[in-house]
Design brief:
The protein has 198 residues and is mainly alpha-helical. Helices cover 78% and strands 4% of the residues. It has 8 helices and 2 strands; from the N terminus they run ββαααααααα. The chain has a two-stranded antiparallel ribbon with strand order 1-2. α3 runs antiparallel to α5 (90-113) and α5 (90-113) packs antiparallel against α8 (171-197).
């Protein structure tokens, strides 16, 4: 049986079977002539927003899941801390963060549907999610309130820019985003109180 080479997508035997080559050329020609490539591009464009929504949903589910996995309010270290009087109970954090991630997902979906989610805004939202996970890791796993305090400052600065970008395209969504900003400021206050008391 003769050996085979693959040259630019064409299957050519060493014996140089011209008929086989011609068949492959014609298949490629009619593929392009039949506008199949355009149809594939159009198909992707048709479902582009749906795919973006699915990917965005998966992203927020992963962020929320990893954040929950890294959060341990029952650890010996956490229970040994002197907590401020305004510190909510553990289940309150769970409820608030569930609402926050649902809010962020809703805002992102609306931006996608209206074609207002720019690459810059998308990237900032991704970094925001990753920093939230990093905060849980720094505070609960590394038991480092100083590092988590710094992360919160970065988060607030980042989310101010996110808020500003959303404000430019959707005023109502920017008002909703203030809820998340307010929660971050409250979290910063709690983090600072823990540093001060311990």
């Amino acid at each position: 049986m003769p050996s085979e080479d693959f040259i630019t997508g064409f299957y050519i035997e060493k014996s140089f079977n011209e008929t086989a080559v011609w068949i492959y050329i014609n298949k490629i020609y009619f593929f392009y002539k039949g506008n199949h490539v355009d149809k594939l591009i159009a198909l992707f464009g048709k479902y582009e927003k749906t795919l973006k929504i699915i990917v965005t949903s998966i992203f927020y589910i992963l962020v929320a899941s990893f954040g929950a996995m890294l959060t341990d309010v029952n650890s010996q270290w956490y229970n040994s801390l002197v907590l401020p009087k305004i510190q909510p109970q553990g289940f309150v954090f769970m409820l608030v963060w569930s609402f926050i991630y649902l809010l962020l997902l809703t805002i992102s979906i609306i931006l996608i549907l209206n074609g207002d989610l720019s690459k810059k805004l998308r990237n900032m939202l991704i970094v925001n999610g990753l920093l939230n996970v990093l905060w849980s890791y720094a505070f609960f796993n590394r038991q480092n309130p100083v590092a988590s305090f710094v992360i919160l400052i970065v988060l607030i600065i980042l989310n101010y820019y996110i808020y500003s970008d959303i404000y430019k395209v959707k005023l109502l969504l920017s008002y909703l985003y203030i809820i998340y900003l307010a929660w971050l400021v409250f979290a910063l206050l709690l983090n600072y109180s823990i540093l001060f008391l311990n």
